[in-house]
Amino acid sequence: MKTILPFLLFALLSASKADLDTSTCGKSKGCWFAPVGCEKTDSCDNVISFARKPDGFVEFEMKSSKVGSKINYLSLGFSEDNEMGSEAVTHCAFLDKPEVHVTYNFGKSNSPLGEVNEQQAESSNVELVEATRSGDSLYCRFKQRIAPTIESQYFPRLNTSYVLLFARGKTRSPKALAPHSFDTRNADFPSVSGLKLNLDEEFDTPKTEVNDVKQMMNDEPMAEPSMSPQTRRNLVVAHGIMMIIAWMVCVAIAVFSARYLRHHWPQKTPLGLKIWFHLHRTLNVFAVIVMILSLLLIFIAKDWTWKGPWFTHSWDENFSGGALHSFFGAVALILGISQPFNSLLRCGPDHRTRPIFNWSHRTIGLIAFVNALIAIFISTLKFTSLWTDSGWALALVIFYGVCGILLVAASEYANCLERRQVSSISMEMKSNQQRRGEQVNVITRGRTSDKHKHILTALLAIVAGLAIAIATILIVLCAAS
């Protein structure tokens, strides 16, 4: 008992000492309180402090209250703007033992250190001082070198101003971060400083107005955000829903009707056009309109900036989930919107260049559709916060693709059997006519063709039913997130 007592006393003293002292904010260190104005009523959920030290480090403190039992990391991002994407992140992980590590946000995806030299440099540039979990609070104090010993985007130079992004969440690995909450109503939704904070500032003269963050730190103001995070999220969700409707429902049914309904209802020609053509054109035009509106929404949400690959971006940035989604989505959109204009080049059915048009139109449409499905697949795989259950969303997209391949294969097989049957009947009739001294080419469409039409009609019904059902479930999973 006597041997255990000193350890208990030490633990109690450490726990009591491990707290963020706000009385020195603006005097010996800079502080950022969240939510805004909470320091006036002493009701802050999150407090972050920073102070330059003589040894060439900045000492950071993070304290987060009202933390759920599953929350096991606190993270601090050093950003040039007030949005996640392209910033270094330092986090404290509370798993088996407290640890501090650095990662980087490539778009909306967070990546741990990958290069051996960067991993080796981590311990000399970031140092954990202390970290504790006490009740519903997490506290972490760490030091980070102002001028890193290695040139790497993972290690920011702290002798400048940054917008701080604070987040907390649950992770399985101490060296990597899992997605945080994206629900603005949730206490675990990230906080943004709203100011570019000078992390290298020397606090050598007392400040009188410690509750005023701007006066306290004399930092560079940021432009007011054009819209709230919830509005941005709503626009992103609306973008996703509209793309699901356009590609997975409208385009899918339009393509199937053009490919497999050409010989249906030959005598019915409303406005001089066959029914399959009306279906194909109407659905595709509607889809293109929805695509354009969806494009406008996502650009508004992203402040009219391109988030895909670019020449000046790093390899990791260009191959992040967000960048790849933007790339495949852009290819699909450009090709999809070009199809109505491409159709204006359609020549007569008997024109010698008609096969060229047919194959180019089909090829462009197929490439566009495949790229759209890849973009949707990436969204379920990488943008997990946009779905109430990203696992189900991913499974549904895969199921949709597999069903699409099987249904197209079944339709092509039915067409192949029909062509063989027609060819067999035609050759038999031609042989009989030639034996009587006549030269006649005959193509017969009788009961077999009717059966073939019924098969294709049934397959179209299955395609439409599956497309609408899967799209509806995906929309619910996305809208309810």
Unreliable sequence segments: 1-17, 205-219, 440-448
In which order are the strands of the major sheet placed? 7-6-5-4-10-11-12
- String of helices and strands: HEEEEEEEHEEEEHEHHHHHHH
Q: Based on helices, strands and strand pairing, what is the structural class?
A: alpha+beta
How would you state the average pLDDT, rounded?
Answer: 83
Distance between the termini: 52 Å
**Strand coverage percent:** 15-25%
How many DSSP E strands?
A: 12
InterPro entries: Cyt_b561/ferric_Rdtase_TM, DOMON_domain
Main location: membrane
Pfam families: Cytochrom_B561
Signal peptide: 1-18
Characterise the protein shown here:
46% of the residues lie in helices and 18% in strands. It is of the alpha+beta class. The chain has two domains: 30-198, Immunoglobulin-like (Sandwich), CATH 2.60.40; 229-426 and 445-480, Four Helix Bundle (Hemerythrin (Met), subunit A). Strands 7-6-5-4-10-11-12 form a seven-stranded antiparallel β-sheet. β6 (98-106) and β7 (109-112) form a beta hairpin. α4 packs antiparallel against α5. The protein is elongated, with a radius of gyration of 31 Å. The relative contact order is 0.09. Residues 1-18 form the signal peptide. Keywords: Electron transport, Membrane, Signal, Transmembrane, Transmembrane helix, Transport. Residues 44-169 form the DOMON domain. The chain crosses the membrane at residues 236-261, 282-301, 321-342, 363-384, 390-410, 455-477. Residues 199-419 form the Cytochrome b561 domain.
